[in-house]
Amino acid sequence: MHEMSVATSLIDIVLDTAKNNNASKVTKVFVKIGRLAGIEKDALLFAYDAIKDEYGLIKESEMVIEDVPITGKCHKCGKTDTYTEMFFACSSCGAYEVELLTGEEMSITEIEVD
Ligand SMILES: [Zn+2]
């Protein structure tokens, strides 16, 4: 499962950050995941919960995932819109010159500690 390795690398970052901030307990981890990042949300949550028990620092933490929609800006007419799939024509003029603005990201936005 690909999400297992994603969860592992996210946890590495969380643990590092918590240690650097002398936190004794992490309560929440906010993650931003783009629709195009290729990550199954439920699988990632499952993987996170499975691994977190091994670390006292994050044992009681919860991962909160924010979905990031696919948005793009058309180079021809300048319109910015939200899309549902990867290869798309501009919703306004139909040109295939839409530059992807968001949708591919996968990052931790916030770590809540005690
Ligand atoms: Zn356009």
Could you describe the 3D structure shown?
It is a single chain. The chain contains 2 helices and 6 strands. With 114 residues, the chain is an alpha+beta fold. The chain has one domain (2-113): hypothetical protein PF0899 fold, CATH 3.30.2320.80. The strands form 2 sheets. A 3-stranded mixed beta sheet has the order 2-1-6, covered by helices on one side. Strands 4-3-5 form a 3-stranded antiparallel beta sheet, with no helix packed on it. Helix 1 crosses helix 2 (41-52). It is elongated and about 55 Å long. The chain starts with a helix and ends with a strand. The protein binds zinc ion.
CATH architecture grouping? 2-Layer Sandwich
Q: Strand-residue fraction? A: 25-35%
Structural category: alpha+beta
Low-confidence stretches: none
| Overall morphology | elongated
Bound molecules: zinc ion
Q: What is the spatial order of strands in the main beta sheet?
A: 2-1-6
Could you tell me the mean pLDDT?
94
CATH level-1 class: Alpha Beta
> What is the number of strand segments?
6
